[in-house]
Amino acid sequence: MKIYNSLTRNVEEFVPNEPGRVSMYTCGPTVYHFAHIGNLRTYICEDVLEKILRFSGYDVKRVMNITDVGHLSSDADTGEDKMLKGAQREHKTVMEIAKFYTDAFFQDCEKLNIKMPDVVEPATNCIPEFIHMVEVLLEKGFAYKAGENVYFDTSKLNEYYVFGNQNEDELMVGVRDDVSEDSNKRNKNDFVLWFTKSKFEDQALKWESPWGVGYPGWHIECSCISMKHLGEKMDIHCGGVDNMFPHHTNEIAQSEAYLGHKWCNYWFHVHHLNDETGKMSKSKGEFLTVSLLESKGYDPIVYRLFALQSHYRKPLTFSYETLDQTAATYKKLKNRIASIKADGEVDEAVVKEWHDKFAEAVGNDCNTAMGLTLLYDVLKSDLSGSAKLKVIEDYDYVLSLNLLKAEEAGEDDDELTAYVEGKIAERAQAKKDKDFARADAIRDELAEKGIIIEDTREGVKWKRA
Ligand code: AMP
Ligand code: ZN
Hints:
The protein is of the alpha/beta class. The chain folds into three domains: 2-275, HUPs (Rossmann fold), CATH 3.40.50; 283-399, Isoleucyl-tRNA Synthetase, Domain 1; 414-464, no CATH class.
């Protein structure tokens, strides 16, 4: 298994801390609004990574946080609290907003066949852990109090920014270009670990702490939640590229200062989904969601296929035109698979060969496009029908495209329904005329197209294979 590591900026052989086991952490959603399909691209790619690891035989433990406090409208420590903004928008409490959008997020994940992580932990569950980490950082001299907040002191580190070769001044541009400098900070990259006397007097959620009533900064939650469930050394940490700075950079700074040793070995970053006007973001107003795609008649799995056709380390541009092409590809693929007939014994050794080929293809830095190519190779191969079905089922563990799931006829299947019913009527006539060869030929013709017909007492019924 090979994986690109943002820390070294190289594709590396993946070697976990413990042989056969992988600890994996995913930055979860900020639950103040629906996830847009850009966010979901990141979660699809992380899901694929987890499944490739499992497919390759690793035992994976995956943890995800839910950001329900502390994420401000800028990724640095400025602007309004995103949760509070959501609550004000909808005249609800912050916790109502968090519950509603957490549920909505997991519903979207289910529609996209994104597996539920082994552990999901909301930030508001872990306040004592955050306070403990901040206390230790203060004791060790990596943090200071100023203006009644607690800050991380980046000047105490040998190396602060580890992901890229940009210099720190360049990094800050864009993160806070329209915001005045916080005069409490000793160094401009310092960040808040705990807010007490904040400028956000109306902050809804506040907790007692040794530094007064307040709330945690955003970055501390991922360090604490991952350590709580995965221990002091972690294999893979994931997120979208926008999380590299300042979020992941600050996570590394505070975690390694707290632990006194290296924390996470591999950093996996998914590039953005853009729309034709640029990066997709929730603050732009109207944004693309899974429900919106469904309301336009798209199966959410078509969006999953759309995401899998490209590499996670390349930006991807969304357009309805490309989504339509993907929908047509998906339909053809499903029909082709539905027409495969199970025809007896399966040679397990051959299935294993195809399994290993797929593991190698997708295991090369999550090359899902190569995985799809291999799926077409299976369809074109001279494998028996039963063997093909077995291999497709195996691949679909990673791809999760419902490749073997029978379709239920829906409203948009009018054309198909008319066609099948026409054929059923033709077959009934053939039977009436005692032309059984013709009747059987019609049944076979339908089976070729993945349509199974059954003669029942209530008449002829049909379904997709
Ligand atoms: P958020 O809910 O804003 O905390 O973001 C959830 C995840 O989506 C994070 O891992 C982000 O890095 C990622 N993300 C944000 N915008 C995009 C985008 N346009 N395309 C892909 N991933 C994104
Ligand atoms: Zn995070």
